[in-house]
Amino acid sequence: MALALTEKAAKQVKQLMQAQQLENVYLRVGVKGGGCSGLSYSLEFDTEVGPHDKKFDIDGVQVVCDAKSYLYLNGTTLDYVTEGLTGGFTFVNPNAKSSCGCGTSFSA
Fold first, then answer.
1. May I ask the CATH class of domain 4-97?
2. Taking the CB of residue 99, how many other CB atoms lie within 10 A of it?
3. What is the pLDDT of residues 19-41, one digit of tens each?
4. Would you say 1 and 70 are in contact if contact means Cβ atoms under 8 Å apart?
5. Which of the listed ranges 8-22, 72-86, 93-107 does the model predict with the highest average pLDDT?
6. Would the pLDDT of 105 be above 80?
């Protein structure tokens, strides 16, 4: 398995890169300790790839994930959801046993 981005998420990432005038960057997806449920998702742009990072090219978006986070995120799909006037990225993670109401943290 691997990481996946929906078409909406890939489009939004590309729009963010264009708006911030970013070139040759990676979308870094990861997991950190913390949050309401014990682990929280992280999502940021990065210019470097570490020696143990997993690297994916998804719909023209270069995605990287450190090896430790990949243990929790393998099979996860990143989506972009719009509700009313707001929108945001959501993680559909089959490895999460539970998640908090805000959708930014989970337990494995």
1. mainly beta
2. 18
3. 999 999 999 999 987 655 578 88
4. no
5. 8-22
6. no
HEC profile for 12-48?
HHHHHHHHCCCCCCEEEEEEEECCCCCEEEEEEEECC
| Tokens coding 47 | 């210019």
Helices (H), the chain: 7-19, 67-73
Q: Which residues pair with 77 in a beta bridge?
A: 4, 92
Query: What's the token pair of residue 96?
Result: 């999460």
Domain ranges of the chain: 4-97
35 or 59: which leads in pLDDT: 59
Residues contacting 50, CB < 8 A, separation 6+: 64, 66
Mean pLDDT across the stretch 47-67? 95
User: Helix, strand, or coil here: 11?
Assistant: helix
Helix (H, G, I), strand (E, B) or coil at 101: coil
